[in-house]
């Protein structure tokens, strides 16, 4: 399994593991912040400590289930310490979400670059990567899609989210480019539809937090069949 070690935006040094299906698992591999007796916490990595605390709390309580002070307490720092980096709890969640999108983008790009017989197969690989990320990283996924944040207020978050979507849009453009000119749908519209289909399947049937509905098809089978039916209706040939 290939590994990529990277410093994701506003986060601890993390290790991203990608398998052949584009599955992406993100875990902290280095945390240098520590507590010295009589001196309190070193704050060189305070941001990383708070991000990891937020991920833990999101995993156990959801994006709206904890306060800024609780995040500080979970990180082992004073209630005032988080204000060195963040204006409020929402700013912390935005940093977590931006980190999630960065890792998500790595997984999607890996899937798109994988060997495939045609562009449809590449898109199917990206769909599997989408589901794998949602399943394997539920706290990040919740921060990205369930925080209720206004992306316009957080430029780094907007940038990370747009970069991920642009990768999907490029994959869709490669498919629509082969369609007849007089029947060619706008690539932006198709990409948004594919994103919505993927998100719906991931949120309803592919969650990694135990909240998924049971169904006779696997999430991967459900997403692939839905995408193929949709693309066939648009006139894509595969």
Throw out a few tags for this protein.
mainly alpha; Tetracycline Repressor, domain 2; three-stranded antiparallel sheet; disordered N terminus
Fold and architecture overview:
The chain has 238 residues and is mainly alpha-helical. It has one domain: Tetracycline Repressor, domain 2 (Orthogonal Bundle). It has eight helices and five strands. The protein has a three-stranded antiparallel β-sheet. Strands 4-5 form a two-stranded antiparallel sheet. Helix 4 (119-136) packs antiparallel against helix 6.
A few lines on this structure:
With 238 residues, the chain is mainly alpha-helical. The protein has helices at residues 46-61, 68-75, 89-113, 119-136, 138-145, 155-176, 187-205, 219-234, and strands at residues 3-7, 13-18, 24-28, 35-36, 40-41.
Secondary-structure map with pairings?
Layout: E1 3-7, E2 13-18, E3 24-28, E4 35-36, E5 40-41, H1 46-61, H2 68-75, H3 89-113, H4 119-136, H5 138-145, H6 155-176, H7 187-205, H8 219-234
Antiparallel strand pairs: 1-2, 2-3, 4-5
Low-confidence stretches: 1-22, 27-41
CATH class: Mainly Alpha
**Largest beta sheet: what is the strand line-up?**
1-2-3
Structural class given helices, strands, pairing? mainly alpha
Mean pLDDT: 83
Radius of gyration: 19 Å
Stated plainly, the CATH topology is called Tetracycline Repressor, domain 2
Instruction: List SSEs in N-to-C order.
Output: EEEEEHHHHHHHH
Tally of individual helices: 8
Distance between the amino and carboxyl termini: 30 Å
Number of strands: 5
Architecture per CATH nomenclature, i.e. the level-2 architecture: Orthogonal Bundle
Helix percentage range: 55-70%
What is the general shape? Answer: elongated
